[in-house]
Amino acid sequence: MTLNILFLSITIKKRRISVEEAIHQEMVEKIYQENKDRQIYMHHWM
């Protein structure tokens, strides 16, 4: 009789972001929102 058992452990750690990464992420979100607003405006304008 053979018993095969697989043990798997996963470790998840919260990633800390630096100040530069946080500023970059805010800029990306701002540009994304501006482009989205511009697309909505152009769609309603047509």
Structure report:
The mean pLDDT is 85. It is elongated and about 75 Å long. The N and C termini lie far apart (74 Å). The longest helix has 27 residues. It is an all-alpha fold and 46 residues long.
C-alpha end-to-end distance: 74 Å
Compute the average pLDDT.
85
Helix content estimate: 55-70%
Shape category: elongated
Beta-strand share of residues: under 5%
Largest sheet: none
Number of strands: 0
> Number of helix segments?
1
User: Whole-number radius of gyration?
Assistant: 23 Å
Please state the structural category. Answer: mainly alpha
Low-confidence stretches: none
Q: Could you spell the SSE succession in H and E letters? A: H
InterPro entries: YrzI
Protein name: YrzI family small protein
Pfam family, one: Bac_small_YrzI
Organism: Bacillus xiapuensis
Q: Which descriptors would you attach to this protein?
A:
single chain; about 45 residues; mainly alpha; elongated; YrzI family small protein; YrzI
Quick summary:
With 46 residues, the chain is an all-alpha fold.
Write the topology of this structure.
Blueprint: H1 19-45
